Amino acid sequence: MAKTAPQDFLGTGRRKSSIARVRVRSGNGKIVINKKTLEEYFTRDQDRNAVVAPLDQSGKRGEVDVVIRVHGGGTTGQSGACKLGIARAIFKFDPELEGSLREAQLLTRDGRMKERKKPGLRGARKSTQFSKR
Fold first, then answer.
1. Complete domains list, the chain, with CATH
2. Which of 25, 109, 113, 124 is 20 to 30 Å from 62 at the Cα level?
3. What is the mean pLDDT of each run of 10 residues along the chain (133 residues)?
4. Which pairs with CB-CB distance under 8 Å and at least 24 residues apart come from 96-104?
5. 13 Cβ contact list (under 8 Å, min separation 6)
6. Residue 50 bridge partners (DSSP)
7. If DSSP codes are grouped into helix, strand and coil, which group holds residue 11?
């Protein structure tokens, strides 16, 4: 396994069924997700804004390079996982930013998951049609 350079700060983000491993290092603001640029990987503005939210909140957007490996889930879950991972990595990069990141709720994991299907039902809650006769 490759050694981590001492200037790399790691953060793990999870959302729904997505997991993002984030690496933050000093640089000039480049964001790479699964060997693609941010614009190539996330086509929706909503997802892009979620990914850069911790960088904008901390004011480190042009100061750090971000390398992300993300898998599982869909685009919304992956962007949420990237957001949490970047926030955690930036917190390790500069612990003084904890207050502003926590105030914007960027260090809090969103625990909502898909509800499991129950036996005898068509989905998690949908039932079969009631028949009187």
1. 9-103 (3.30.230.10)
2. 109
3. 73 96 94 96 96 93 94 95 96 93 94 94 94 89
4. 97/58, 97/60, 100/57, 100/58, 101/54, 101/57, 101/58, 104/53, 104/57
5. 19, 20, 22, 80, 81, 82, 83, 84, 85, 86, 87, 88
6. none
7. strand
In angstroms, rounded to a whole number, what is the distance separating the alpha carbons of residues 100 and 90?
11
**Which H, E and C letters describe 19-83, residue by residue?**
EEEEEEEECCCCEEECCEEHHHHCCCHHHHHHHHHHHHHHCCCCCEEEEEEEECCCHHHHHHHHH
Q: Measure Cα distances from 33 to 60, 127, 133 in Å.
A: 18, 41, 57
pTM: 0.88
Phi-psi region of 34 (alpha: psi -120 to 50; beta: other; left: phi over 0): left
State residue 133's pLDDT score.
85
Residues 6+ apart with CB under 8 A from 72: 17, 18, 19, 78
SS3 129: coil
pLDDT of 15 reads: 95
| HSE (side-chain half, CA atoms, 13 Å) at 71 | 1
